[in-house]
Q: What sequence folds into this?
């Protein structure tokens, strides 16, 4: 059967039709159209009087570049539609709209069909004597979905499975997996491999979502078969007041729990990628010498904690068996998996935990000494976190497992899954393709000016304040040049906004283009006929239905600013603001607006995105709107087309579609597009792409150790010591010591760049000389030509504290460019590039 692309360019096409399928809440299915037709064995009654499909918009408020809603008017002379409203109701009906060409003479379809809309019906807007008007909204309207979605509350927020079908789904989540509403609870005692306790011989069929009910159903700590559960998601434990005696005090005093920061009805944070944030403190209590706290890190399973800072003092991770009262410590009570974990700092006399298990939430146990916080008021806690593990998929749609990743494509996919989208509704292959493009390594410079390789786009995002999903996805898209639309099967796909050659490298189906343009293929070419392309309709007076316009100066900002956490500067909060000087001089005014972009990870990415938006705002301030026939079928927002209109000097000028507004049955289409230039889409960043955040007057200098000048029996260096005796005139004897050493070299000017470290260093299991059961901090310098040493990198913890009483060694510093082991920092000067070496600040050579 011919495709729509084959049919739409014919001089005389068959009748274009929209097919409406309504699946009511009762299960009944109604099929209607403007004509009575039969397609694929199903009869569509002629009941559609009219419809308004609004617009398919680029960068719409809903976050998806497609139809947000439609209004359909149905014939109701026989009151058939009114009966549906009275019986089962229109609200909740699933609506699918397909488009095809139909041969009314033969009564058979003339082309294949394509899905252009899926949505959910509301109650009838208006019922008259002859018609019924119905509004259908996008079933997954992202404007109505909010993140974070889980509140801090006493009652468990997870849905309890009531029926046998729900309990079967609760075991593994069914087709929805961990995004099933019953998965986090998981009560399924009668299902093989399930969890939970029975009420006699039958499962419980209700729950009041309290701690006592959770314990009764075996989901708080363990069930009747001793399977660990720890699924309770409520937060209600507050430690009781105790009598304590602080060091140096002679008497006891009461120590009550400090008023918590995480209040009920606040939201549990969600962290994607890596970033600093101030998580809510559930409670804090001082026991005389230590203030012990529980800190709610976020929803879902996380990768781990990199740093914890309390009142501007860094706290080390806890070590089993070590006395860390002087420094304090932190440990993960729950990493956020389905089965949570208890904080063992609060237990009864028998060792049973008293607190909450934090099922499906990550929780941090934190203890700090009185010199950091005395428990009289709540401290300030900041955490550098590697956040949520994300599902990843191969190019064929195969599931690859959950891993920590900050690729924006997988972040958007995870947000969509949280919002109710299933894998059947998503084009997973397109997400894999977009993830591969975002993850490609491109050259950049770190904050010290060193050349490095970084992923093209990353997303490090912390959500503490509640926002709509549309706002979040739109912000990520703006930071990564991504956009969402529907494919011909009605699945949601993710694409990258790019040059014509990269976005549309092969000839699209349905295009009338005869030859490539700038290395790519336009989706369609429209014109006035001078260049061999037409397709622009004329009005009744004979004028072409086309207009060009530009936005006013007030709507075209020439300065854009964005805030982000710089991964090259220990993820510290930073900002970048770029201005187009030529436009400021031209207009005599500076129009500054903040850029709505979320998750930017470094200056290079920020500079590229801001420059692109400035180019589109100023040099892309030319728009075209025209009407065409059914030839516009299949075109979607984001597609690149060309317009030839010699009167305005345009000859095969690329434009990017901003909106598509189809008329009745796609007989006419109104297209709005913005001028496009491939030069704007560059992986190179201009000035301001890296910062010089280190201030030389305040940084830690390069250590200059003194080395001995003699060798001992084992070949080690020792200081040569000579004793000298002097007799004074008054008979006293003075003894002097002479110590020999090798003088360190003086600091000299060098072009060797400062090495860039990853905060999560790689630690080997052997071969080193570093003892375990201790916390060490390292900085790294580079040696250039003539042994001139660079300044030090930032300090990083080596992680040896995780290994008790064993010899460990750092296998090598890890550059953000992706190198492991001993890195070689690239240099601009080839002579120095071959001689870069690394050593620890204490003089110990890296192995």
A:
């Amino acid at each position: 059967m011919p495709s729509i692309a084959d049919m739409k360019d014919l001089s005389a096409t068959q009748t274009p039709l929209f097919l409406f399928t309504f699946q009511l809440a009762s299960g009944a299915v109604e099929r209607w159209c403007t004509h009575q037709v039969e397609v694929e064995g199903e009869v569509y009654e002629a009941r559609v009087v009219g419809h308004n499909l609004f617009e398919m918009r680029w960068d719409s408020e809903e976050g998806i570049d497609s139809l947000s809603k439609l209004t359909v008017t149905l014939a109701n002379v026989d009151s058939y539609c009114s009966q549906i409203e009275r019986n089962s109701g229109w609200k909740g009906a699933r609506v699918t709209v397909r488009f095809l060409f139909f041969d009314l003479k033969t009564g058979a379809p003339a082309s294949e069909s394509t899905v252009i809309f899926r949505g959910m019906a509301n109650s009838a807007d208006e019922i008259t004597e002859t018609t019924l008007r119905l509004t259908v909204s996008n079933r997954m309207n992202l404007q109505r979905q909010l993140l974070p979605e889980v509140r801090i509350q006493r009652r468990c927020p997870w849905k309890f499975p009531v029926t046998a079908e729900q309990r079967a789904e609760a075991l593994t989540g069914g087709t929805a997996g961990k995004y099933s509403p019953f998965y986090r609870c998981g009560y399924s005692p009668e299902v093989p491999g399930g969890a939970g306790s029975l009420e006699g011989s039958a499962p419980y069929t209700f729950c009041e979502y309290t701690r006592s009910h959770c314990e009764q159903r075996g989901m708080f700590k363990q069930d009747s078969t001793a399977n660990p559960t720890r699924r309770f998601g409520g937060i209600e434990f507050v430690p009781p007041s105790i009598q304590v005696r602080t060091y140096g005090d002679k008497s006891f005093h009461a120590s009550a729990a400090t008023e918590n920061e995480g209040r009920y009805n606040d939201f549990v944070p969600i962290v994607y990628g890596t970033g600093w944030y101030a998580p809510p403190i559930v409670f804090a209590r001082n026991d005389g010498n230590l203030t012990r706290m529980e800190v709610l890190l976020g929803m879902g399973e996380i990768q781990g904690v990199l740093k914890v800072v309390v009142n501007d003092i860094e706290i080390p991770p806890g070590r089993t068996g070590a006395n860390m009262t002087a420094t304090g410590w932190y440990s993960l009570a729950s990493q956020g998996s389905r089965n949570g974990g208890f904080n063992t700092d609060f237990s009864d006399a028998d060792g049973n935990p008293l607190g909450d298990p934090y099922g499906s939430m990550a929780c941090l146990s934190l203890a700090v000494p009185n010199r950091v916080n005395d428990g009289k008021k709540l401290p300030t806690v900041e955490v550098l976190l590697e956040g949520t593990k994300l599902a990843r998929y191969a190019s064929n749609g195969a599931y690859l497992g959950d891993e920590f990743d900050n690729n924006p494509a997988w972040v958007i996919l995870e947000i969509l899954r949280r919002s109710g989208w299933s894998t059947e509704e998503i084009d997973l292959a397109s997400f894999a393709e977009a993830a591969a493009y975002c993850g490609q390594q491109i050259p950049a410079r770190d904050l010290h000016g060193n050349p490095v390789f970084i992923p093209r786009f990353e997303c490090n995002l912390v959500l503490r304040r509640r926002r709509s999903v549309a706002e979040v996805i739109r912000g990520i898209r703006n930071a990564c040049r991504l956009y969402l639309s529907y494919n011909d099967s009605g699945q949601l796909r993710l694409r990258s906004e790019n040059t014509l050659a990269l976005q549309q490298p092969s000839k699209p189906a349905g295009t009338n283009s005869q030859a490539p343009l700038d290395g790519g293929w336009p989706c369609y070419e429209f014109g006035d006929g001078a260049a061999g392309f037409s397709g622009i309709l004329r009005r009744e007076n004979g004028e072409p239905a086309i207009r060009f316009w530009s936005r006013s100066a007030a709507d075209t900002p020439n300065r854009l600013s964005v805030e982000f956490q710089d991964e090259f500067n220990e993820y510290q909060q930073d900002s970048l603001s770029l201005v187009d000087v030529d436009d400021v001089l031209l207009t005599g005014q500076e129009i500054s607006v903040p850029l709505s972009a979320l998750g930017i990870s470094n200056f290079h990415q920020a500079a590229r995105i801001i420059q692109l938006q400035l180019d589109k705002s100023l040099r892309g301030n030319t728009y075209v709107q025209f009407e065409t026939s059914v030839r516009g079928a299949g075109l979607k927002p984001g597609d690149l087309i060309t317009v030839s209109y010699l009167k305005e000097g345009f000859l095969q000028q690329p434009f990017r579609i901003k909106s598509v507004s189809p008329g009745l049955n796609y007989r006419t289409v109104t297209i709005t597009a913005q001028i496009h230039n491939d030069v704007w889409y560059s992986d190179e960043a201009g000035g301001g792409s890296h910062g010089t955040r280190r201030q030389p007057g305040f940084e830690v200098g390069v250590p200059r150790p003194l080395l001995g000048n003699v060798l001992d029996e084992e070949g080690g260096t020792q200081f040569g010591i000579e004793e000298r005796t002097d007799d004074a005139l008054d008979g006293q004897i003075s003894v002097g010591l002479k110590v020999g050493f090798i003088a360190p070299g003086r600091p000299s000017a060098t072009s060797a760049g400062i090495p860039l470290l990853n905060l999560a260093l790689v630690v080997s299991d052997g071969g080193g000389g570093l003892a375990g059961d201790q916390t060490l901090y390292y900085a790294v310098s580079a040696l250039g030509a003539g042994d001139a040493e660079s300044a030090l990198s930032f300090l990083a913890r080596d992680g040896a504290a995780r290994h008790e009483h064993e010899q460990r060694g750092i296998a090598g510093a890890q550059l953000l460019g992706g190198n492991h082991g001993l890195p070689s920092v690239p240099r601009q000067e080839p002579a120095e590039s071959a001689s870069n070496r690394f050593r620890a600040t204490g003089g110990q050579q890296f192995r």
